[in-house]
Amino acid sequence: MLDSYLPILTLIIIALGFSVAVIVLSRLVGENKPSAVKLAPYECGMPPVGSAHEQFSIKFYIIAMLFIVFDIEVVFMYPWAVMFKRLGLFGFMEMGVFILILLVGYAYVWKKGALEWE
Q1: Residue 39 scores a pLDDT above 90
Q2: CA–CA separation, 47 vs 102, rounded Å?
């Protein structure tokens, strides 16, 4: 049984060996001359404005997460739409419950004011 895992073990050893060898070689062969220009943050060819450690408002992250949650939920509707006729009334009712749960979540978020960008 262990013979069947030998190729996988060999591949892992080769991959680890190669990655370590590349890192060691780049340290030995490569030049390391840091300067202020090289260590400055790069922003699309423009000189950086302000601090690189600027803090964003928590509202930005909340709205981003809510967008991802509600956007991903729409992805679940595509397979349902493709299989709509085969699922019949049961599939229709299940999607109705799913959309109802989404609407309750959306109403909760709206009532809490999480969608307000102040």
Answers
A1: no
A2: 44
Which structural domain range is residue 17 located in?
1-31
The answer to whether residue 25 is domain-embedded is yes
Q: How many CA atoms lie within 13 A of 57 on its CB side?
A: 7
Based on the structure, what is the number of domains in the chain?
Answer: 2
- Any domain includes 117: yes
Inter-residue contact 62 to 114 (CB < 8 Å): yes
Beta-bridge partners for 43: 46
Letter for the amino acid at 93?
Answer: M
pLDDT tens by residue, 55-85? 778 888 888 888 888 888 888 888 989 998 9
Separation between Cα atoms, residue 94 and residue 89, nearest integer Å: 9
For residue 11, name the pLDDT band (cuts at 50, 70, 90). very high
16 plus 72 within the same structural domain: no
